[in-house]
Amino acid sequence: MGLLLSVAMCEALVMADDILGDVRDLRDDVYRRPLATAMTRLGVGPGWRCVDVGAGLGDVAIALGEIVGREGRIYAVDIDPAARDLVAAAAAAHAQVLALTQAVEDLTLPEAVDLAFCRFLLLHVHEPLAGLTAMAAAVRPGGWVVAQEPITSAGRIDGVAMSMPDARHPDIGALLPGLVVSAGLELVDAWAEAPAGCGPGPVASYLEELTEVDPADASIVLPPLVTVLARRPD
Questions:
Q1: Virtual CA dihedral for 24, 25, 30, 32, nearest 10 degrees?
Q2: Which of 65, 83, 89, 183 is the most buried (most CB within 10 A)?
Q3: How many domains does the chain divide into?
Q4: What pLDDT, on the 0 to 100 scale, is given for residue 1?
Q5: Where residue 71 sits, what CATH number does that domain have?
Q6: pLDDT digit string (tens) for 46-56?
Q7: Residue 5: is its pLDDT beyond 60?
Q8: Is 88 exposed, middle or buried (0-12, 13-18, 19+ CB in 10 A)?
């Protein structure tokens, strides 16, 4: 086909660029690329119904709300009631974003969704498999679960391995592909990406926010984030 593109292909590229643009707007998000890749792969668009589990301040939920539009629905779920209130305030201009207080293991929504998403969640919960199983049950048959979790010990600061002593499962990303299969899902794709940097910049700022330690001019490789795309069988 050479340099010629069909109208359908052009429209698909424009839509993908719009989705990537919305996801790239995530505030201070150094891990945005694997998220944008996942959303584009799935073709998330207007009218989708999604749940962001462990939504925190709601950056991802609001970005998804921009993508799905008024005809879609985003449930921003977090176990912390304070997070619910913050998301509700931040999403005041987005009627399609609803904030709920729930634990992932107890996930209960008023409708089946097209996509259940979590990031940096399962490393903190007591039973990661129970959490993934609840997310799988929340999506419609044929729907999607996207999970992104780190391999913390693979991160490096000036060559020294990182640690996250407060996390229950700091290297859960290394187990994530197998866990989604154990949750009854079909593993469609999985990969790992790790932002890196040296000196001032978003990577150093992210690490300082995470650890409260200024990395100065150290070489940094943040923990690889494993992304899994999994589908609930029809």
A1: -40
A2: 65
A3: 1
A4: 32
A5: 3.40.50.150
A6: 999 999 999 99
A7: no
A8: middle
